Structures are given as C-alpha cells and as structure tokens.
C-alpha cells in the first residue's frame, strides 16, 4: 500500500474528551472516528489492527477445541424473561420494539441465547463437553462511555460458552480457557495478570479478570510481582497440569481495589515484591453452574436415566478494547511501537523525496515490489514531505520496522531501523531475512 492512497484521516485538533493516550493516538492517526457517544467507526488503519487481534484470539480458541459460530446482535426479550435478567439488567440494556410491537434488545452478552440454542439441540451427556464461541458486536448503554474504545457503548467481544455434565468437567473447561487467555495475551505482546474477581451481572461463584498493567487503567490493582514469573511452558494441556497452572497463578496475591486489604497485602507480599498500579481489564471468565440452565430448563439425560441441568461457564475477551489497551501498554514518549503480531503493516519504506529528485522513490518502489513478492505487508511513504515530519508521523503510526532511503543509502545497502533503536546499514537480502525471522 502507498501512503498517499491510504485512507488515514489524521486529526490535529483533539477533542477535550480524548483524555488518555490511546484515545488521542487513535484519533491522531485516523484509526477510528466517533459516530455518536461511545459508538465508533473503524477506519482502515484501526480496522486492520483489530482484525489481527481477532485472528490471534480465534486461533487460540480453536487450539483448545472451541468451535466458532455466529449469533445475531438483536435478540428476543423472551429468553431474558425466562432467566430473569430482563428486569435485572436495567438501563444498560438497549431495548427495541419491532413493527409488531415485540420487545427485542441489542445483545449485551449471550448466555441466554446460547442456552436456548443448546437446549433445543443437545439432549444426552454423550455429546458433552462442548465449547462454543463467537465474535460479535455487543451493546451496553453505559452511563459514561469514555476513554475512546476502552469503555464504549458498542464494542467487539469474543464470547465463549462451555457446557459440561458436572462441576468437575466444567472446571476443566474453565482451566482450558484460562490457559488459552494467558497464551493469547502473550501473543499480543501483553502481560496479563489473572485475578480472582466478582461476578457482577453475569453471576456464578468462580471468576477471573485478566488485567494488563497501565497507568491509565480504570482498575486499581495490588499484586505480587512474582506472578509475572509463572512460566506457561511448564504446563501441558492435560487436565491435571492445567489445574496446577491455575493454582500456581492463584497462589500469588493479585486483587483489584474492591478486594484489597492493606494488612493482608503487607503480610502476604514482601515490600520489594509489591506492585501497586492501575490496570485494564481485557478479559473476564466465569463459572456459574446452572444459573441459566435451570431457569431455561436446559436439561440433559445423565447416566442412570436422570435429567440434570447442564453446567456452564462463559468467557469474554474485549477485542476492540484490546486495540486501545495495547496502545496504553506500548505508547511512550511520543513513540508508538506495535507488537509485530498485530502491527498494521510489517515494515514501512521511507524515501527522502524532493521535486527534482525522484531517484530515492524509484529505489523505494523496487524494494516495495520485492518485499511484496515475499508476502511482507509493506507501506511505502510516497508523500512529498520533509524527512523530519515523516519520522514524526511514523513514530505515531507505529510500524515497528523502517527502511530509510536517503543520504546514507549506498548502491546495495539501506538504512534499516527498528523503532526505539539505532539503525544499521543492511543489504536487501538481510532485511528480508530479518523481517521474516521476527
Ligand atoms: C463473558 C462472555 C461477559 O460479558 N459474558 C460473555 C461474559 N463478561 S464481561 O466482563 O462483562 O465482558 C467481557 C469483556 O468485554 C470487554 N468489555 C468492554 N469493552 C469495551 N467497552 C465496554 N463497555 C466493555 N464492557 C466489557 C472487557 O474486556 C471485558 O473483560
């Protein structure tokens, strides 16, 4: 892609509502545009990043045997009346009437709908366990949508649901998801802390929030920094090993402010190991047994001819929120560096161009073609602008690697730079292999 062709409407005048750096950066680099309070359009640059995050989440879900499906955004109120949440959910639920006067709603989550699908199709314990997920827009009429994509009214979520015969089986499904979440966030270049959490309107008695550290986060967190040393490679995918992994994580102190007690913290965590900071919740998992299956009458034929409500859990990742959260974790001193796995492009070529000298642009185009042929996703900055402005702009767009074609270039060597480090002179062959190995 040539930068001159890319639809990237940079905003210079920031609204006073853009209080945190991810919101500011997303507006400045034209990743999103607000359409109304807490509702955004995703423009090409932002959309590309979000789709890459979505794909990593999808691959990790598939790896643990979860099956992808798609449920609608609009749901009937009937099933919510059956579970009792139609009343309980309150003002956050966007309620709609169709032309026949039927009460509908824009789904804030899907526990009821998936239970309805399940009860009409699965009858026997022989078909269990099942793990289903979808990636779909949600709507919650938040009283104060803010911080750009972090607390929206409309947002993109991966939500998964597990179905098991008994509590023991359900805990195994829970552990699988727990493991998958830590892996997913690692692939996104994020360190996430799993924390025992309250269950809120979803309900249940076992729940973890996955929180990444960031000064601008909404949750105050207190943790033992040793939790970061738990090494996922020590565990395999067997049930016993996954149970041990969850126990190992849980053995370290990590709580949000609603569970925090000063004395407890000082007693359990040595001073030098104490982390007190803010964090962003990027995922949340729940085990709630038969909270939905009993009122919705989702029964299965268990062994011995008895009927039993299926045991369920639900597991969410805020995909659109993760775009902002990744920026919060990686944007410092006016430089944003995307983790390679979700960067909008793999590399940008920045030639020094002037009206009388198009030689650098021609060199750049040649390199562009060669990289494209290697399936490297490359952006060419063909805009006629001075180099210092170009560098400032690319510090914000955040593509982690640059090939600079200017005064330093030689016949067969080019300046190759990783953001936040010094550049080196390399042949095109070594640049290609560097990019392939990253
Ligand atoms: C779990 C999946 C649930 O909704 N039901 C299905 C459960 N959990 S949750 O914690 O309420 O949400 C899951 C994740 O969605 C993101 N999220 C949001 N992102 C942007 N704006 C919002 N208003 C918003 N609300 C929730 C979070 O990442 C959360 O962890």
Overall description:
The chain is of the alpha+beta class and 438 residues long. It is built from twelve helices and 23 strands. The protein has helices at residues 21-28, 44-63, 77-83, 85-88, 111-121, 167-187, 239-250, 262-268, 319-330, 359-373, 387-397, 428-437, and strands at residues 32-36, 39-42, 67-68, 74-76, 94-97, 103-106, 130-139, 154-164, 192-196, 206-213, 219-224, 254-256, 274-289, 299-301, 307-309, 311-318, 331-332, 335-336, 347-351, 378-380, 401-405, 414-418, 424-426. The strands form six sheets. Strands 3, 7, 8, 9, 10, 11, 12, 13 and 16 form a nine-stranded mixed β-sheet that branches. Strands 20-19-21-22-23 form a five-stranded mixed β-sheet, with helices on both faces. A three-stranded antiparallel β-sheet has the order 4-6-5. A hairpin with a 2-residue loop joins β1 and β2. α6 (167-187) crosses α7 (239-250). The radius of gyration is 25 Å and the shape is globular. The mean pLDDT is 94. The protein binds '5'-O-(N-(L-prolyl)-sulfamoyl)adenosine. Residues 109, 140, 142, 151-152, 155, 157, 159, 202, 281-284, 286, 314-316, 318, 320-321 line the site of '5'-O-(N-(L-prolyl)-sulfamoyl)adenosine (P5A).
Largest sheet: 9 strands, mixed
Ions, cofactors and other ligands present here are: '5'-O-(N-(L-prolyl)-sulfamoyl)adenosine
Helix and strand content put the structural class at alpha+beta
Our Rg estimate from Cα atoms comes to 25 Å
- Beta content comes to 25-35%
Mean pLDDT: 94
Can you tell me the residue ranges where pLDDT is under 50 for at least 5 consecutive residues? none
How many separate helices?
12
What does the overall shape look like?
globular
| Separation of the first and last Cα atoms | 21 Å
Tell me the total number of β-strands: 23
């Amino acid at each position: 892609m040539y930068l001159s062709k890319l639809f990237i409407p940079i905003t210079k005048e920031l609204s006073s509502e853009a209080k945190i750096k991810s919101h500011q950066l997303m507006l400045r680099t034209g990743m999103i545009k607000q359409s109304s309070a807490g509702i955004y359009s995703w423009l090409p640059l932002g959309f590309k990043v979000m789709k890459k995050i979505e794909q990593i989440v999808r691959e990790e879900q598939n790896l643990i045997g979860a099956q992808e499906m798609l449920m609608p955004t609009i749901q009937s109120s009937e099933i919510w009346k059956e579970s009792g949440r139609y009343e309980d959910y309150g003002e956050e639920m966007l309620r709609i009437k169709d032309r026949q006067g039927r009460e509908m709603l824009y789904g804030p989550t899907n526990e009821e709908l998936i239970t309805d699908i399940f009860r009409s199709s699965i009858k026997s314990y022989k078909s269990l366990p099942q793990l289903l997920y979808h990636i779909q827009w949600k709507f919650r009429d938040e009283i104060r949508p803010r911080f750009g994509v972090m607390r929206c009214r409309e947002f993109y979520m991966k939500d998964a649901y597990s179905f098991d015969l008994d509590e023991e089986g359900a805990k195994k499904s829970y552990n699988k998801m727990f493991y998958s979440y830590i892996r997913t966030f690692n692939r996104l270049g994020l360190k996430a802390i799993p924390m025992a959490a309250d269950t809120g309107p979803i309900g249940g008695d076992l729940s973890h929030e996955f929180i990444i550290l960031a000064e601008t986060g909404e949750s105050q967190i207190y943790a033992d920094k040793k939790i970061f040393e738990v090494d996922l490679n020590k565990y395999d995918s067997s049930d016993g090993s996954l149970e041990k992994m969850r126990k190992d994580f849980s053995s370290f102190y990590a709580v949000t402010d609603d569970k925090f007690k000063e004395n407890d913290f000082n007693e359990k965590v040595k001073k030098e190991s104490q982390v007190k900071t803010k964090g962003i919740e990027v995922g949340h998992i729940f085990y709630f047994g038969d909270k939905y299956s009993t009122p919705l009458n989702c029964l299965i034929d268990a062994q011995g001819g008895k009927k039993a409500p299926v045991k369920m859990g639900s597991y969410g990742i805020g995909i659109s929120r993760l775009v902002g959260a990744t920026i919060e974790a990686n944007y410092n001193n006016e430089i944003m560096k995307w983790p390679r796995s979700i960067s909008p492009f793999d590399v940008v070529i920045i030639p020094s161009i002037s009206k009388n000298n198009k030689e650098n642009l021609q060199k750049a185009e040649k390199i562009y073609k060669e990289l494209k042929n290697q399936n490297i996703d490359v952006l060419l900055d063909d805009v006629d602008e001075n180099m210092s402005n170009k560098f400032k702009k690319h510090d914000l767009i955040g593509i982690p690697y640059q090939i600079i074609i200017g005064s330093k270039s030689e016949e067969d060597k080019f300046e190759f730079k990783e953001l936040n480090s010094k550049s080196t002179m390399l042949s095109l062959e070594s640049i290609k292999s560097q990019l392939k190995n990253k």
